[in-house]
Automatic annotation (TrEMBL):
Xref: PANTHER family: L-ASPARAGINASE, N(4)-(BETA-N-ACETYLGLUCOSAMINYL)-L-ASPARAGINASE
Keywords assigned by UniProt, alphabetized: Autocatalytic cleavage, Hydrolase, Protease
Active site per database record: 192
Entry protein name: Isoaspartyl peptidase
Pfam families: Asparaginase_2 (PF01112)
Length: 328
């Protein structure tokens, strides 16, 4: 029997000690620890990696601290459009939804697509109808509202740029200006969420869920629901969930590339994930990070930003939570 392991992330970006109050920091550590513990409980009870990753992401979606589900960011039209994906490493089964607006837990909709349809990716109203028919809870759009996210959007609406929710000093589509762009929401850092897990039976799984990027164009789909870009799992190599500038992760097929490096070039999990995060992604302006786990239970959590909300738990050991690049 393999010792089960789970890791989660809550987004990467300009997260500095100076920008996060001690109270907020403590809230993030507590939320991350609680959610990893819930994932560990699933695994330690004999649950599958897929069940544990789905459950962890469901809890992250419900937590307003993170940009997924309740607490998601706003589009340029002041709405929420959510993306999510799950993948099972044992058989490469996967499911995803994009641009959904009324599903409480997009990750459960992604799982329904995987298990109850013959497709991999459903989008928009048809995805919502499919999920509702299959028992996924619906909500009115105001469920996703949080004052912090709304204030953040009000600061950038009308500008022709979209911004990473948790990385206010970077911008995905803006023209470069000489002056540095000020953080739009220095007091509240949120993030896309994800989980990767290895179960007692040696199976890997990954799940990712997001509201995308603040002020994004309606209809924009990022990397999170795209297999191989923002989410990937294959028992032969790795389970990965990504966060960051989605277009760059799509253009480099970042999560799949980590597995490919391991399969074809014989790289270790550490080598492969660091090469993608510190070499491949920056070449196309990609900023962010990944959480990755291999079939031996090795973990890699590299990121090329100032911080990444992250946590992991092995077997019965207490969860470990981290935010910044170096330990406090
Ligand atoms: N990767 C996400 C997206 O582009 C954003 C994030 O990770 O915060 O939709």
């Amino acid at each position: 029997m393999t010792t089960p392991v789970i890791a989660i992330h809550g987004g990467a970006g300009t997260i500095t000690r100076a920008s996060l109050s001690a109270e907020d920091e403590a809230r993030y550590h507590q939320a991350l620890a609680d959610i990893v513990a819930a994932g560990q409980a699933v695994l330690n009870a004999g649950g599958s990696a897929l069940e544990a990753a789905t459950e962890a992401v469901r809890l992250l979606e419900d937590c307003p601290l993170f940009n997924a589900g309740h607490g998601a960011v706003y589009t340029s039209e002041g709405r929420h459009e959510l993306d999510a994906c799950v993948m099972n490493g044992a058989d490469l089964a996967s499911g995803a939804v994009a641009c959904v607006t009324n599903l409480r837990n997009p990750v459960l909709a992604a799982r329904a697509v995987m298990e109850k349809s013959e497709h991999v990716l459903l989008v928009g109203p048809a995805a919502e109808a499919f999920a509702a028919r299959n028992g996924v809870a619906t909500v009115t759009p105001d469920y996703f509202h949080t004052d912090a996210r709304h204030e953040q959007w009000l600061r950038v609406r009308g500008q022709s740029r979209a911004m990473l929710d948790h990385d206010a000093s970077s911008f995905a589509f803006a023209e470069k200006t000489a002056a540095p762009v000020e953080p739009i929401d220095p007091d509240h850092k949120f993030g896309t969420v994800g989980a990767v897990a290895l179960d007692q039976f040696g199976n890997l799984a990954a799940a990712t869920s997001t509201g995308g990027i603040t002020n994004k164009q309606p209809g924009r789909v990022g990397d999170s629901p795209i297999i191989g870009a923002g989410c990937y799992a294959n028992n032969a190599t790795v389970a990965v969930s990504a966060t960051g500038t989605g277009e760059a992760f799509m253009r480099t097929v970042a999560c799949y590339d980590i597995g490919a490096r391991m399969a074809y070039a014989g790289q270790s999990l550490e080598e492969a994930s660091r090469a993608v995060v510190f070499d491949t992604l920056p070449k196309v302006g990609g900023r962010g990070g990944v959480i990755a786990i291999d079939a031996q239970g090795n973990l890699a959590l590299p990121f090329n930003t100032e911080g990444m909300y992250r946590a992991y738990g092995c077997g019965e050991l207490a969860p470990v939570t981290e935010i910044y690049a170096a330990p406090a």
